[in-house]
Amino acid sequence: MLGRASLTDVARAAGVSVGAASKALRGKPGVSEATRKKVNEIAERLNYEPNPIAQTLVSGKSGSIGMFAADQGSFSSPIMAGVQNELSANGVTVLLSNAFGDVRLERQCIDALLARNVDGLLIVNHNTNIRPPLHEEVPVPVVYAYAASSDERDCSITVDNVEAGRMAVRHMAEIGRDRIAIVCGEASSKAAIDRLQGAMEMMDELGLTPVNIPRFGTWMAEWSRQEILRLIDAGTAFDAVICQSDVLAMGALDVLHTHGISVPQDVALMGHDDWGPIVLNTNPPLTSMSNALDEIGRLAARRLMDAMDGKPSHGVEYASCALMRRASTDC
């Protein structure tokens, strides 16, 4: 047969009506199991593929979802890749709209996706700060990835940064380090606040106290350089440094090297975020906490598909972070 087989071709070859063939292929009642099996075998032999336009007209669904990205950077991109991989494996098309960091464009981008008759929306942010929900008149299911919605009725998927902070301290304790310094990021960042909370909880459980008073600063390497220099100049003894990002850890490593302090022999060092361009290219390679970004994307995609099938989830679900152990903490 030349060209793509149609539903009519399948029905004719199976000796059934077009309606019966359609029911058999879509798993609908009204046909016998023998007919269902025969129709599906013939459809496979003829390389039959459903007409997406016809499917949309019949089901009222477009077979696509809209994904809005507030920004496309080192955190958003792996999440979007996870979403894309999960949905494409389930035959769902992803339409992407990107605001490139301009918060004023969000409403415009969302409306543009809705105009394409998407069956659901997935909202991806580049940080974990709580965000406002979309305007209430959105007519399709919505799932938020990385930045949770402030409305507990919504479904949000993010990373457990409190647990990440706990795991970082536990790791340092397990390798025998008990004079731990903590270098924090920005005070306005929920990730920084949560990671510090987790770290302090675990230190308290282990009977430890940080050698410094953890202070919020910036996410820039210069901030961690200043913090480590402050410890060295004060003569503070420390055998481990936990930085709340890999960029901060890179700045700390620079100062430690400059002052002849060996990593990890003298001081074990680790970061957060597991950002490949940094952690794999420092000397030594950097231990870091992974944010499980791909898994966040996959989980968000699954929850959206569930919601589109009439089984919505509510509240915040946390993807498990993971310790990526490398030479900077391995003596």
UniProtKB/TrEMBL annotation:
InterPro entries noted in UniProt: HTH_LacI, LacI/GalR-like_sensor, Lambda_DNA-bd_dom_sf, Peripla_BP_I
UniProt domain HTH lacI-type: residue ranges: 5-59
SMART domains listed in its UniProt record: HTH_LACI (SM00354)
PROSITE patterns, per the entry: HTH_LACI_1, HTH_LACI_2
Name under which the protein is recorded: Substrate-binding domain-containing protein
Highest taxon above the source species: Bacteria
CDD domains: HTH_LacI, PBP1_sucrose_transcription_regulator
Keyword field: DNA-binding, Transcription, Transcription regulation
A single GO molecular function term of this UniProt record: DNA-binding transcription factor activity
